[in-house]
Amino acid sequence: MEGEEEQKSEPVLAWMRDPVDIDLYQAECPLRLVPGLDPRLVMALQNMGISSLYPVQSAVWQETIGPGALERDLCVNSPTGSGKTLAYALPIVQMLSTRSLRLLRALVVLPTRDLALQVKEVFAAIAPAVGLHVGLAVGQTSITDEIAELVKKPAFEFSNAYDPEDLQLETSMGSSVDILIATPGRLMDHVNTTKGFTLEHLCYLVVDETDRLLREAYQSWLPTVLHLSQLNTKRMVACPRSAANYRMPGCLTTCLTTIRRMGVERDFNGKCYPRLVKMILSATLTRDPSKLSQLDLHHPLLMTSGGSRKRYQLPEQLESIKLFCESKLKPLYLVALLQGLKEEKSIIFTSSIESTQRLSILLKCFTELPLKISQYSRLQRQSVRSNTLDAFRAGELQVLVASDAMTRGMDVDGIANVINYDMPNNVKTYIHRAGRTARAGRPGRCFTLLRREEIKRYRKLLKKAGSDGSRTYSIPVETVENLRPVYSSALEKLKEKVQSEKSRRRFSGSLSARTGNQKPKREKG
User: Fold this and answer.
1) N or C: which end of the chain has fewer CB within 10 A?
2) Which helix (H) or strand (E) element contains residue 115?
3) pLDDT per residue as tens digits for the range 45-71
4) How far apart are CA 446 and CA 442, in angstroms?
5) Rounded to an integer, what distance in angstroms lies between the CA atom of residue 281 and that of residue 295?
């Protein structure tokens, strides 16, 4: 009752009260039955090993390519691992393929580089089949290299006397990509500094992991995108004769016809102009009216698993399991648990980056644990994180110790277990952590190590997450006691390695100060 009362007291926007129930769609819709799907995309999907669409993908398709035809902005609240990325990638690629324009017409914004790289892979697997180019702006490479990939160079040379600010320079430059996958920080870098980069032809905006992106509004990226995406189309309505001056290639009549087909609405004066179609997605979509109002949604349609029955929903095949442990012996309970799980692929989540580093080192010091273990955190370079994930996907690592950088959207096949070494602070974190397993209808388990004083909070958390409860995983006392001598030895090794790392950093810092070298600032994603 407590959870129900809390939910009723929250303000809910009118359009969120009657959502479309994704679960009512066919469990798996074969590609041959998907209405209007381009045969080239069918082949691309089959090459990816996909023979049918999941319910969320079928539902979004019906509201975009199907009868809905994107007459409303879409808000998708669906569990992790349900297939949301392909749900928006497929209709966007299909719609853009009908127009032979090389303009930046679709933008997908994500909170982290790792997630952006993953989403880019999905688009890159299907977009080339219909002649579309996909770009990436996440700070993984230098901004110069990104510019070379995103913006066409002028087709002819200019004299030394040519003014680079001349309108003709901008007109001769254009986008090399149709679809851009970006993080907010690097997106704003291009908006503010890259010549020839424009959002004025944008037709589709996807905000993935919406609740996090609205919370971390870096450099006011959202209002900037919404403003810039409307500039060109409003100019064309106000002065259609001069529309060709705004980088619309080809015949003016053709351009205006194409623009009108992108989705048209009328303002209060009855004037037509193209509408920027928005799709927002999350497994824990916010209901805060003040946050959602930032998106300026057009007659939004909410699509959610379970309809209006539950605000949050865990993967259907997930089993939640609790493990009671003594605080001082918590690492021993974890080691005993890992021994019981044997070589099953597992992710261990901690509450901080420091805990991630220490726990990873400590587990490697247990000789009784014949598993390949590594860590994954924001402090690591992007190349290190990417290599670690590749090794984990390939089965070269059995256990990954991670901070919450891994909780959002990361998709790794075959993860059997998620282990909460530190209990999550809130229900959203629990849902995103647990969502690393039991993906795409497969079974998975989420273990949570609990001290006695955490039991009540854990039960409340599960109730909010829509779970009916959890079973208890028991570890014999003698198993834990047998690990005590090894634990003492592992702690000594941990102290030695930590001291060695601190000494190395002090030496590195001292050397940099003497030589006048400074580490370059990390680029914000």
Assistant:
1) N
2) helix 113-126
3) 999 999 999 999 999 999 998 766 667
4) 13
5) 12
